[in-house]
Amino acid sequence: MKKMVRDGKKEDIMTAECQAYQNEEGSFGRDSAKRQRRNKNFDPAEWWSNHGSSAPNIRVLAMQILSLTCRSACERNFSVFQQVQGSKRRNRLLHDKMRDLVFIKATPNLNKRE
């Protein structure tokens, strides 16, 4: 939290919100919130959207953290796309062909022979 929040006051507020989360207070204490929190198949971003009203600062931070993996995957795929499209000759590839090449290059398990 120290790396993402520079303001000491806000950090203190967020620490108190974390304590409320851990103690299942406020909106975190609802039966549905408790049940869904323990459900391994429930989407964490959806959980924070539905039950994070007691801790608006932590809710924003949680949503930022949960979106990091999506951003990194998109950036990685864009990088692979640029590698595949690298030459002027490849620049003329049809969309479907380009998509297939990016998929093959970006999927590690397909690139390994057993």
Automatic annotation (TrEMBL):
Upper taxonomic lineage: Eukaryota, Viridiplantae, Streptophyta, Embryophyta, Tracheophyta
Top-level taxon in the UniProt lineage: Eukaryota
Domain named HAT C-terminal dimerisation: residues: 34-105
Protein name, entry field: HAT C-terminal dimerisation domain-containing protein
A family per Pfam: Dimer_Tnp_hAT
InterPro entries: HATC_C_dom (IPR008906), RNaseH-like_sf (IPR012337)
Recorded GO MF terms: protein dimerization activity
